[in-house]
Design goal:
Strand content: 15-25%
Oligomer: single chain
Number of helices: 13
Structural class: alpha/beta
Order of helices and strands: EHEHEHEHEHEEHEHEHEHEHEHHH
Number of strands: 12
């Protein structure tokens, strides 16, 4: 089988890395196209993947429009030469129309309801749109649901074992209280008109009185916050996250990752997600807030909980009992659909 995998975001690298390795073990050929978004290409390098970078993110609306057409043109040329049996990706804004043009079976793995333009342009053109069961929007007859989250493709216990040695890389001791903060750039389609933390300096000052603060950010940090910037080899963040006291920030993906690992996640954003809502409603692993002020009482209450880690690991076990190993599911689903088309 020949698979064309399109990477649009660093999270896509994590989501599909185990799938790629598993497919390669089975003798399938995987070609990866990428996008120079944040650290996406750096992660591909860190994991030893060969890939072709075919676009850079547009810096404004017109830049996004230009990138859409340019990326589509590049992908079409690669697809015609490679002749894949299947095209896969997350979101699918490029692979869905190009897959339809090429007449190739196309599977989108989608978990974001709040990108109506992207979903409108991609979902109807895909062969299948696969979403977690918590996805809240209608998709159509080609909709396939699975009992999991994207993050369970790489953070399920079958796929990931945290390495405590990572603490030494950032000068932390075992059981030391520390917080991971994530700031986003707010310049992607799903972020237009949205906002999160409004006073980053204030929340950092508060948390630094309770433990060590480490920041990962898509945007340049102020002079006040630069000393908290996290310096960690690519591919090691989830190992560090697994031992954090709390993860706080504007990223729904990082909030979900934290929850999957059994670490309290405080998601501060007006950009809601079905999966973060479910992780709060069903398991109490994420706390969703639309403002920094609303989040502070919960942060303070959690820090006063002497059994915080124990309680959240118990919640994690309940979640894992309900959900699946998503990489295992993806492998079986893709092989089944390609065999069905070939027969």
């Amino acid at each position: 089988m020949k698979i064309l995998l399109d990477i649009l975001h660093p999270a896509d690298v994590h989501q599909f890395k185990n799938l790629v390795w598993e497919m390669q073990k089975k003798g399938h050929i995987v070609k990866i196209t990428s996008r120079k978004k944040d650290v996406a290409n750096g992660l591909l390098d860190a994991y030893g993947f060969e890939y072709v970078n075919i676009s850079n993110p547009g810096k404004n609306f017109m830049g996004m429009v230009w990138e859409f057409f340019y990326r589509g043109f590049r992908l079409y040329k690669i697809g015609r030469k490679f002749r894949p049996d299947i095209m896969i990706g997350s979101g699918g804004i490029t692979i869905a129309p190009i897959g339809r043009l090429l007449g190739v079976l196309t599977i989108i793995f989608s978990n974001t309801e709040v990108v109506p333009i992207s979903n409108f342009m991609s979902h109807p053109l895909a062969t299948y749109v696969c979403t977690p069961t918590c996805y809240t929007k209608p998709v159509g007859r080609h909709h396939v649901s699975y009992k999991g989250y994207h993050e369970l493709a790489y953070l399920h216990p079958n796929q990931f074992k945290p390495d405590k040695e990572v603490l030494k890389l950032v000068g932390l001791k075992d059981s030391q209280i520390f917080f991971l903060l994530r700031f986003v750039s707010w310049n992607t389609i799903d972020h237009i008109g949205k906002h999160g933390l409004h006073d980053k300096d204030d929340i950092v000052r508060f948390l630094s009185q309770r433990g060590r603060v480490l920041i990962t950010s898509e945007v340049p940090l102020s002079e006040e916050l630069k000393k908290y910037s996290l310096d960690l080899p690519l591919g090691k963040l989830h190992h560090l996250m697994a031992f954090a006291t709390m993860v706080i920030g504007e990223s729904s993906t990082m909030s979900s990752e934290s929850a999957i690992l059994g670490v309290p996640a405080i998601y501060i954003s007006t950009n809601w997600r079905g999966y973060t809502n479910e992780l709060e409603r069903e398991y109490g692993l994420v706390y969703n807030f639309d403002s920094q002020e609303k989040a502070m009482p919960t942060i303070k209450a959690l820090l006063d909980d002497k059994d915080l880690k124990l309680n959240f690991q118990k919640k994690r076990r309940q979640m894992l009992n309900d959900k699946i190993d998503v990489t295992d599911w993806m492998v079986k689903f893709i092989e089944e659909k390609v065999r069905g088309k070939q027969n």
